[in-house]
Amino acid sequence: EDKVVQSPLSLVVHEGDTVTLNCSYEVTNFRSLLWYKQEKKAPTFLFMLTSSGIEKKSGRLSSILDKKELFSILNITATQTGDSAIYLCAVGSRDNYGQNFVFGPGTRLSVLP
Amino acid sequence: ETGVTQSPTHLIKTRGQQVTLRCSSQSGHNTVSWYQQALGQGPQFIFQYYREEENGRGNFPPRFSGLQFPNYSSELNVNALELDDSALYLCASSLAQNNEKLFFGSGTQLSVL
Questions:
Q1: Is the pLDDT of residue A37 over 80?
Q2: pLDDT band of B99, cuts 50, 70, 90
Q3: Which of B42, B56, B57 sits opposite A88 (nearest CB)?
Q4: pLDDT at position B2, please?
Q5: How far apart (Å, rounded) are the C-alpha atoms in residues A53 and B33?
Q6: Neighboring chain A residues of B107 at a CB cutoff of 8 Å
Q7: In chain A, what residues touch B44 (CB-CB under 8 Å)?
Q8: Cβ contacts of B68-74, under 8 Å, gap ≥ 24
Q9: Residue B34 forms beta bridges with which residues?
Q10: What would the mean pLDDT of A36-52 be, rounded to a whole number?
């Protein structure tokens, strides 16, 4: 059965700290790995990764995928209180029937002033 | 904001009833998928629709069904509601059938009493 595991499940840091969030997966017919930020209800898109070893960056956030070891990390440098949210990792795959998406449980990040 | 709109925002039903949730996709997006997010968990993939046909389904029973209309909007129908169906139901649209970059709506919070 396809699964996505995230660690840690919860993290409390202070403003200015750097954090690394982990995502590992076991998925058949992998197509892509995605990171989302969920503050209230609607998850917002951060990154989509399809190739190993290529870092994607957006401001203080960056992410990389290792398809051989089946994991990805999301880094946030110089954290701010506005980074407090749940960070979701999801893997997209495709089988004979069609698309499938598997989400991890999320990492709840709290950034204290 | 993504341009994906869902209605209603909140809904209270009793066990055994039926419910219909609605979603309007972002302009230009022809693919819609639905997710169930229980409290404290990551979203679970219910199914995806492309050009009015289901083209991917997660591990949900047949009482969860859907429709996509020619304007790409979508409905999620749940029959014979159970207490465990209480959750946030998220809709996401994407540009194409094989594009995993999802844009989420703010969800419908369903409570089953």
A1: yes
A2: confident
A3: B42
A4: 66
A5: 29
A6: 41-42
A7: 103
A8: B68/B32, B72/B25, B72/B29, B72/B30, B72/B31, B72/B32, B73/B22, B73/B23, B73/B24, B73/B25, B73/B32, B74/B22, B74/B23, B74/B25, B74/B32, B74/B34, B74/B49
A9: B47, B91
A10: 92
Mean pLDDT of chain A: 94
Contact A42 B90 (CB under 8 A): yes
Question: Is the pLDDT score of B98 beyond 70?
Answer: no
Strand B19-24 to A85-94 pairing = unpaired
**Minimum distance, in Å, between the CA of residue B60 and any CA atom of chain A:** 12
Q: What is the largest CA-CA distance in chain B?
A: 38
The amino acid that residue A4 corresponds to is V
CA distance B31 to chain A (A): 11
